[in-house]
Amino acid sequence: MVATPTYGATRDRVxxxxxxxxTRTWERLTSDAPVSGIRQTVREGRxxxxxxxxxxxxxxxxxxxxxxxxxxxxAMTEELARxxxxxxxxxxxxxxxxxxxxxxxxxxxxxxxxxxxxxxxxGLGAFDHVMAMDSMIYYTAPDLGRALAHLCPRVQDGIVxxxxxxxxxxxxxxxxxxxxxxxxxxxxxxxxxxxxxAQEAARNGASGSIKEIERVARGFYISTCLEYRx
Length: 230
What we know:
Layout: H1 5-21, H2 23-29, H3 37-54, E1 65-69, H4 75-82, E2 86-91, H5 94-103, E3 112-116, E4 129-132, H6 141-151, E5 158-165, H7 168-177, E6 191-192, H8 194-203, E7 209-218, E8 221-229
Parallel strand pairs: 1-2, 1-4, 2-3, 4-5, 5-6
Antiparallel strand pairs: 5-8, 7-8
Helix pairs in contact: 1-2, 6-8
């Protein structure tokens, strides 16, 4: 099982942050509303990363079942549905899922099942593809290795996901964030080395490999797209 104490604690912290603290911020950030210069770089970085991730999938997803793991306010979900996929869109935050459902064009609604909860839940079933944009960035390498090993048997193709790259800047930023009182912290990204993640997945019985696709660095948005295949 993936529900280790560290995984569960991180998942609960992320849920509380996005469902109680940052809902309105993310609703505005992922809309067309004006935002500050810093948030604009995050918006642009996320748009670029979403395009990179989608480029790893076929243009026609008709008949394919795709998990949007950490769907947020639904931008990735909409694009997958437009390609013809049957999408299961899940997020730890019920508030964000509600926003995503409201934003989805009515004509695409029959292709999407929205739900809130743990993106690794076995009850979600099997998939042809899994997309996890910025939803795994808060977890430790051992927990991510378990997550990949847990998902792998239920995925026909690949798992496309993002992590924070292990750079000197982000390691310093991460260490500095640990100095703040816990009550003042938002969930902090944990930088990762893809090789370490592959080792952790193998330690949990998975036999796949991780390929680095592309890194996006746009202002305050820094993330790397990876693909895991069995």
